[in-house]
Description:
The structure is a homotetramer of 278-residue chains.
Chain A lengths: L1 E11 L4 H11 L3 E10 L4 E11 L2 H11 L5 E5 L4 E7 L4 H11 L5 E8 L5 H6 L4 E3 L7 H13 L5 E4 L8 H6 L4 E5 L11 H8 L3 E8 L9 E8 L6 H24 L3 E4 L2 E4 L1
Parallel strand pairs in A: 5-6, 5-8, 6-7, 8-9
Antiparallel strand pairs in A: 1-3, 1-4, 2-3, 9-10, 10-11, 12-13
Helix pairs in contact in A: 1-2, 3-8, 7-8
Amino acid sequence: MEQRVRVLIDCEDAKGLVYKISKIFYERDLNIDSNREFVDKEQHKFFMRTVVSGQLDVSELENALREIAPENARLKVIVPQRKKIVILATKESHALGDILIRHEAGELNASIEAVIANHDTLKPLVRRFDIPFFHVPTEGLSREEHEENVAKLIDKNQFDYIVLAKYMRILTSSFVSRYPQQIINIHHSFLPAFIGANPYKQAFERGVKIIGATAHFVTDDLDEGPIIAQDVIPVNHRLEWRDMQKAGRDVEKIVLSRALNFVLHDRVFVHGNKTIVF
Amino acid sequence: MEQRVRVLIDCEDAKGLVYKISKIFYERDLNIDSNREFVDKEQHKFFMRTVVSGQLDVSELENALREIAPENARLKVIVPQRKKIVILATKESHALGDILIRHEAGELNASIEAVIANHDTLKPLVRRFDIPFFHVPTEGLSREEHEENVAKLIDKNQFDYIVLAKYMRILTSSFVSRYPQQIINIHHSFLPAFIGANPYKQAFERGVKIIGATAHFVTDDLDEGPIIAQDVIPVNHRLEWRDMQKAGRDVEKIVLSRALNFVLHDRVFVHGNKTIVF
Amino acid sequence: MEQRVRVLIDCEDAKGLVYKISKIFYERDLNIDSNREFVDKEQHKFFMRTVVSGQLDVSELENALREIAPENARLKVIVPQRKKIVILATKESHALGDILIRHEAGELNASIEAVIANHDTLKPLVRRFDIPFFHVPTEGLSREEHEENVAKLIDKNQFDYIVLAKYMRILTSSFVSRYPQQIINIHHSFLPAFIGANPYKQAFERGVKIIGATAHFVTDDLDEGPIIAQDVIPVNHRLEWRDMQKAGRDVEKIVLSRALNFVLHDRVFVHGNKTIVF
Amino acid sequence: MEQRVRVLIDCEDAKGLVYKISKIFYERDLNIDSNREFVDKEQHKFFMRTVVSGQLDVSELENALREIAPENARLKVIVPQRKKIVILATKESHALGDILIRHEAGELNASIEAVIANHDTLKPLVRRFDIPFFHVPTEGLSREEHEENVAKLIDKNQFDYIVLAKYMRILTSSFVSRYPQQIINIHHSFLPAFIGANPYKQAFERGVKIIGATAHFVTDDLDEGPIIAQDVIPVNHRLEWRDMQKAGRDVEKIVLSRALNFVLHDRVFVHGNKTIVF
Lengths: 278, 278, 278, 278
């Protein structure tokens, strides 16, 4: 079938990998539409993302690649299609709103299956877009019980990624390990500066001249997951911490959307606690 | 005498300060060439930097201002002139070199009295500019003894500021307290991220997408002094830590020179562990 | 009445202005909450924006200020309140969407009276927010006739500013002169580079390494009005012009919202074809 | 001989290029140390820069590659070595100084063969570094005569590139065509904004909020050559044009050095009036 696929390979580095892989494409008369590679020399790891098009059979191609790939290679042949996401939020609307507007314009490259929040503040906004909104209150519940309720709701959906669009609760290890490399968070500081609560207040008190935001995969270690995207803006002595918070929102939403764009186009490899973004 | 002076006031906030101060300028028929104020409302502090010109007597003006200023006000009337600096360095030439070139071009607004280093690597470079270079070796000396040698050399000069242009040794409290608000350092990270040794290695290992540099006054707390200027550049997975280090040098030298420019024009107020930069 | 007002003065520079103005505040026992001044020395113009609070009568204060202000001074005492805006758009939703989300969150500091568009593409989006949407088609109409229809609709509203949120039609002099210093546009390039149609295509063809966006007041001269805000992002050879266009949208919406924020807080003075932004 | 070389290929795009090229590396048992490709789909052009190491014979490798490369391919196998540059300057020292400091530190990856200037202002600075300085005065000479004198001096040197480090004279077509793709200029604006004389004055008069610098290859069309690198800094109403000029110098020198770094590592392909920078 005439089609275009994304080939992702992530394996031990070895001589001849590019040759062997491109040979497979060549023998099938495929076009290479774009190609990015990277070798981490310290760790002897090879990463490649190639977009090929032509008459191809996905499983046949994947099998051929698997035969020449080193053992334990992570290998994917992906037919591009809109991925599915579930969003977790709390009260702030800027990051969620940015995603909703892109979604509405058909520019998100994903469909939003549900928005789940621990407050009902954002319900009217989400409902305006005819997207399912679920309020999961925390009152009277342990962290584990609340998360269990959230997880049940999440699991009712088919989804590729869970997006924390300013979800202001810390997730337990148990929750995080349920969705490995599937949870993307926007942290409201230039990590690793100002880990933890109220980073704008911390930034204000430290008197920094620049503030930022960090989109990262969520892992067990709070604010320590692999960073996907970061950006910053200048600030000065005239901004109190609430002004910084307000100014920071623009960076947060842009950085989260930029990270989502990378992830939804299969442009991100996770490697230890780092990412390779092609 | 017809002249132009910088008036700096830093005091408890009080009603009528602008009025009372501008009245003094008005009564003396002075021009206000530029004027910046800031009120820290949380701490009830008032900061003002005004450049006035006209027929004026510096001590008369200062006395008049002192009379209307709140008790404990820090008040300065400064006749602009080239300040004097002593530079401490180690082996890297980029930050020092940037200052030397500006100095040579008459654009530094300061004269370099001496360069003192714990290695002799930079001696040829400094000598090219006919500036006194002193090598103070560390071998066989305790930190305190070495610092004592450095301090003796510093104190032989008249100077306004000590500039650490990539001086790679940690200073003792005792040394720092000898030169309060006079020591300016360039730290090779976006503080408070990556405090301590080898921040580029730390940045590489954390997988950040942005690296930076921070110019700050040196206080007792390592890397915790008031920040004067910061800037950043984007990086990606292709940079190993030595590449980051190399790329970071441009930011370091520009940020240090920018901070120096602020300080040498009396545009920086220190307030707790923060700065107001006008 | 106990209240807080913004005092804006824009006049010929003269000795003693700060003194005379602050005297008026002092005599009325007003607090100066913030104060910014600027003197354009080349043009001998004085600009000041002061926020004062206390027991005050707006017209009394304005009269007092007018008495001491130079002739032809532009002087305003403004009681802060949500301003009203009318938005003109075409088909793209990113800039409009960003404003709608801020509006919904109560963070816009303005109320959107109406959205008027020359296409009906954005009608569903605007309707989701219960904001009046008017489609004014261009078919069969001269530029002047179409503008007349738009202007009639605009004039049915009370409004302070007209915001062109990617309104892709060139306005006639006659339309522009009807709303002096009231029309704010977002141009999709770093002006003055790439004036005119399809700036991203121009940028792509020129091979620039940075693209940007410019928010400005609209004047008779196309793309020549006073600039309020600008920002940029890096690009490279891998981006085709449609990729640049896509990447540029984030800059466009952020720059427009930043400019709106300045204007809606009365922080912008227009001075010839430039702005002073406090 | 065990060595590392840079392979640069620039040709019509064709199916199987990556395969055929990587096959040649594979058959010779070479390591691919880094690899970047780009296909300009609109123009059907293929660009590749690969660093390979191992037992290799440069001409044998080049011949093998030429056999499989499309007709008219530009193909180079480069043994990395310090390139040679000649610098042209006028009076300003910041861009030249930055290069001299890097040169002195062994970080320039090039040797400076000579500095040629139309004024003798920079002679003392250049002499400090024991680098040949030649003053070629313009008095009493036509543009062509002056250029002839400059060219004669240039041609006495072996050199790879001519660097215009703020050389403030317009070059004739005849001069430019003598050194195709060998002349690198730093223009003191974000091109294509503010082409021509005194861009900072133009920027000031236009009231922009950002200024920049552009490093580009020099072609016949003034300020229209392929752009290698650009960067910007924010400015505001408080900067007069001379302040902008001063602030801009940091951007100029950093952008020029960044562009030089790309060029000296053979990372730049010129393609029409654009560059591909790997």
